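User: I'm writing a tutorial on reading structure tokens. Could you give me a worked example: one chain, its sequence, then its tokens, then a sentence or two explaining what the tokens reveal?
Assistant: Sure. Here is the example chain.
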Amino acid sequence: MTASEKDIPMVQLLSPEGDFSVPSEYAGYAEFIKELREEDFLKFYRDMARIRRFDNEATALQRQGQMGLWVPAVGQEAAQIGSGHAVGPNDHIFPSYREHGVAITHGVDLMSIIKMFRGVNHGGWNPEETRFHLYAIVLGTQVLHATGYAMGLNFDGKVGTGNKDEDLAVITYFGDGSTAEGDVSEAFLFAATHKTPQVFFCQNNQWAISSQVESQTTVPLYLRGDGFGVPGIRVDGNDVLACYAVTKKHMDDARAGLGPSMIEAFTYRMGAHTTSDDPSKYRDETEYEMWKSRDPITRFEKFLRKQGIGDEFFAEVEAAGDQLATEIREATFALQEPSIESMFNHVYSEPHPLITEQLAWLKGYEASMGGHEGAPATEGDVNYGGAR
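And here are its predicted structure tokens:
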């Protein structure tokens, strides 16, 4: 941690060596950790290890031509798993496009994420079932969507009733680069003026593609909302327990009607921004090595071993990760390309002659090139009977 970083208050419950302690100024967060049992700790570790194994496998699949693009989240597992498990059973989640770890904490099928980046669907999970809304490819939009949804919860009287089965809150995820988007500032404004039941969760991974965070702001990001009336706090984004406790408290406060807040998870993107990026062109190797020593999974393993968790558990997790990677690989290679017709389905609610003409031309073009090798069209695949 640099000298300037040390001057900024940050909630940390686990040291990089895996030692647990609660500074007096953050004593209020300890109660949320006391509620956890050993099985919860093991679940946190499994999920972090699982999503990293999935992430690395997805990167390999993209390199082999199975996807046009992949967005890795290696290094950010603690921020995602900790906060994801802190979200309540009634709450709604608005992610950007890197929240694979949050997704698995809420039952999203990992193959649905693969399919989206492969281009065979637009996000195949059902937000009504998982409360995890679809990935936002246009950065910043999800923050406005979340704020609008949270405003609606106020209008519907779903906040501050004291009924834990009925009260709802919203959390939205975004990166340090997105804080420069006007959408985020607008969301802060509407959230504050409408006192929305909402948490803004910023994963500050230090880089917005090749723009370092210091070039994006002159103040710590957790202060970004203060001018709008959205108080913030910084948490060690590589400490899964701190991320869990801080998110749990702020989601509880939002649900109780105390209004919006912002959490800045101070973490690091260990890999590339996407698989089309080469971070070695703009990042110093010493910076990477420093953050590697803060690896969130290694840190939590040290903590668990100090609690008496032995080699058998970690071997089991590793074997399960290998099995998951095999399943993901086999399922990805088994995917078929969507039919030509699927591009034209539901463009209009009624038949349109131009769409019919374009489809006919494309079919003819494909035939002249030797045919379409994707999935065969099913009878009635071109359906203009209403938009989905």
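What the tokens reveal: Residues 373-388 have pLDDT under 50 and may be disordered. The chain is about 45% helix and 10% strand.
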